[in-house]
Design brief:
Helices cover 3% and strands 62% of the residues. With 177 residues, it is mainly β. The protein is globular, with a radius of gyration of 16 Å.
């Protein structure tokens, strides 16, 4: 990563049943979480149906999500060797298993072509879920492909921009639509 205040990542979500929608991730203010003393970047994820806050903490090689109700962190991504594996529990307490499958992928999405992306394979056995995510180290997620069952969903980075220093409000988020 690291995530910077004011960044806006717009994704295009499609499936083979004709779904075609956009959603956004907007990085907002930093805050210190009282339960563990760590600094997180509050972001907002949303589309036309609503907005959800999403606290993340990034280092130069890892990205963590905060599960605030239990004050635990989930390691979402890390820059490591092929074959590196770990797991975390989702919001429902179900384990998600992650393995790095590639570390030098070239990924072309509507926002451009990226070199040196990391490909992660994720499974959630309790739901029969299987998907892949590609992230660009020092940047953000580029693409997600869901292989679980039809309709197969693909999310791709459609565009990236900065809102500027005033990007901490829901109103600023809504202006990205």
């Amino acid at each position: 990563m690291p995530l910077e205040r004011g960044q806006v990542f717009t994704f295009q979500r499609t499936d083979d049943d004709g779904l075609n929608e956009r959603f956004h991730y907007v990085a907002a203010r930093e805050f210190v979480e009282p339960c563990n003393g760590k600094t997180y970047r509050l972001g907002f994820v949303g589309n036309g149906q609503g907005i959800e806050p999403f606290p993340l903490r990034s280092t130069t090689t890892k990205l963590y999500a905060l599960q605030s109700d239990s004050c635990t962190e989930r390691l979402l991504w890390q820059d490591a060797r092929v074959g590196t594996s770990w797991s975390y529990d989702d919001e429902d307490g179900q384990p998600i298993y992650v393995t790095i499958e590639a570390v030098d992928e070239t990924v072309t999405v509507p926002a451009g072509t990226f070199h040196g992306a990391i490909k992660f394979r994720l499974t959630k056995p309790a739901w029969g879920s299987d998907w892949a995510e590609w992230i660009q180290p020092g940047f953000f997620m580029l693409k997600m492909e869901d292989y679980s069952e039809p309709p197969y969903v693909v999310e791709e980075l459609a565009e990236f921009r900065r809102l500027g220093r005033g990007a901490d409000s829901f109103e600023a988020f809504l202006e990205t639509k």
